[in-house]
Amino acid sequence: MNYSSRPVSILDRWIVVAIILCLIAVPIMNQVLPSSHALHLGVFNVTQLGKFLCLALLALSVDLVWGYLGILSLGHGAFFALGGYAMGMYLMRQIGSRGVYGNPDLPDFMVFLNWQELPWFWTGMEHFPIAMIMVVLAPGLLAFLFGWFAFRSRVNGVYLSIITQAMTFALMLAFYRNEMGFGGNNGLTDFKDILGFSLQSDTTRIGLFLCSGIALLISYFICQKLTRSRAGRVAQAIRDAESRTRFIGFNVENYKLWLFTFSAMLAGIAGALYVPQAGIINPREMAPLGSIEIVIWVALGGRGTLYGPIIGALIVNYAKSWFTVAFPEFWIFALGALFVVSTLFLPRGITGLLQRRSDQ
Amino acid sequence: MSSSGQKRGHVEQSQAGRFLRRDRVFNFLIPDVVDRLDVSDPVLLYLEDVNVAFDGFKAINNLNFYVDSGELRCLIGANGAGKTTMMDIITGKTRPDSGTVRFGRNVDLLDLSESQIARAGIGRKFQKPTVFEKLSVFENLELAMADDKSVWNTLHCKLNSEQQDRIATVALTVGLPEQLGQLGGKLSHGQKQWLEIGMLLMQEPLLLLVDEPVAGMTHQEMDKTGELLLSLAGTHTVVVVEHDMEFVRSIANRVTVLHQGSVLAEGQMDDIAQNEEVRRVYLGE
Predict the structure, then answer these.
(1) Residue B244 pLDDT class (50, 70, 90 cuts)
(2) Is residue B21 in some structural domain?
(3) Segment A201-227, tens digit of pLDDT
(4) What pLDDT sits at residue A177?
């Protein structure tokens, strides 16, 4: 007896197969094939794909609240960056006395600012497990507090989107300040190694790529489980008819709060994996425009499906890296055009188009 | 004024009482209101001296309204008489400016949120049928089902065979056994109305508030709906808001007429139809 409203799509399986194949093939293409081979993949490309997989995870987290719960968050860049900063702090502490100033305790920017000791919130960040806890705790806590106030006062729709945007903007301005203790304008950079492995070595980079892919896969399975549970159906009910959901006895605020917090944690993990591969984290990751871009990935890929945002994030980011090399000035126009085209002609995104094909 | 003062006093007293009880130290451990509901009185729902004004317009004006357990009550009144506002007050959507709203002997509905009121046993069918369009009929019924509705439970719960049977039974009751796998949005207007009633039944409420159940229905569908509502009365308490007088006559034994936010008349349908004042303000004579 199966009366589910959503037949399992082929794409649901394909995306998993594709990611797994990618995880197997890319290291082989980089390590085993000789560099003269046509299919050889340089380390640069491996790291690039690794970063894009992190961004795909970020898109997945946005889709979880937008596509399934109806909350259009324009502030997920903040959660991504917070996770990234937590990882960045750990990496900074690993530099030790190899910094420019050779101070064994203080990161370079603190020495430069004439600080005498580590601020209290840097305590323990040299330990990997503590840093990893902060990766999910910091964005989770911010999302929980934000959601606690926003959802309880029943802020909805476009107003909620605007205050999420304001949140990331405010956080960005705060992080730009040197007094915050996060490196100000320059952010955290010049990382040397992670867990004792040099970040410059090829194997570490492949390891980070694999970690990104595995994190994406695990998150994908968790999201799949979540959206197919009754809680997932409640979320969709809230998305489509919020007050009706209240009148059949669900505490809508709690559902929103927990899903939003969970989504922020996923974004934090994405940020933490992104930073060692990008080599830098600075407040520009919290720029309002960045968060809007994530929404475009999701819209273009197809929201309300779990594979859509992953495909969207990969397509847009590859297009971006190609465009910014070929026609650097035109990328922003191309992005705008993509958004217009996807809203006008692809209301369900690219995957919606594929879905329609396979339905026929 | 005096009534609100009284009410506040009552609340303070009960809170102090609650605080002093040794078994009520950890408030969050107390089960949902459902288990505490006391329905030993014949009267299930009390609205006393309720007033609501929207921007100076008195939508509800000193309303006193009582519903007995197990009765099927019809509520009629012209547009703007306050019928829907009254439903909003009972279900927690609108908060009255003053007055008392109680469910059973001991549950003060003004203290509860919409979802708590729903879990306490008051179900509502809206005027405009709102089912979850992207979910199947089965899933619509599943979500409405009386069960632990916390986030944690819904994350891992599975339907047991008893619950599946219950969904199948309700689908049969409202005449949608063939449509269980269909999306809510794909149903016809009448079917959506029935699905809503089915969702109400899944909630196992003590009190059903049904807003215009036959609006836009064919005669055949209307008869079926009437039968359905009649079969519910007795085991449930049902309050129906309806414009269609013929339909009201076919199901109701007691009718309440609302006019300008208060009760104009109450009684048997035939008496109401004879009532001079009702004829003047409502039937337009």
Answers:
(1) confident
(2) no
(3) 999 999 999 999 999 999 999 999 999
(4) 95
Alpha carbon distance B169, B153 (integer Å): 24
Looking up residue B232, the CATH number of its domain turns out to be 3.40.50.300
Instruction: State pLDDT tens for residues A159-175.
Output: 999 999 999 999 999 99
B31 lies in a domain?
no
Q: How many angstroms separate the CA of residue B269 from the nearest CA in chain A?
A: 30
pLDDT mean across residues, chain B: 83
Interface test with chain B among A6, A225, A242, A248, by most B beta carbons within 10 Å: A248
| A342 touching chain B per CB within 8 A | no
Domain enclosing residue B137, as ranges: 71-95+113-281
Q: Is A244 in contact with B126 (Cβ distance < 8 A)?
A: yes
A chain contacts of residue B32, beta-carbon cutoff 8 Å:
none
Do residues B66 and B86 touch, judged by C-beta distance below 8 A? no
Q: How far apart are CA B7 and CA B1, in angstroms?
A: 10
Question: Rounded to two decimals, what is the model's pTM?
Answer: 0.89
Separation of alpha carbons A227 and B96, rounded Å: 38
Both tokens assigned to A307: 């594979």
Whether B7 maps to a domain, the answer reads no
Look at chain B and report how many structural domains it folds into: 1
- Nearest one of B213, B270, B202, B261 to B240, comparing CA atoms: B213
Amino acid identity of residue B213, one-letter, is P
- Can you tell me the ipTM of this complex? 0.88
Q: Is the pLDDT of residue B7 over 50?
A: no
Cβ distance B139 to A3 under 8 Å? Answer: yes
Question: B77 in a domain, yes or no?
Answer: yes
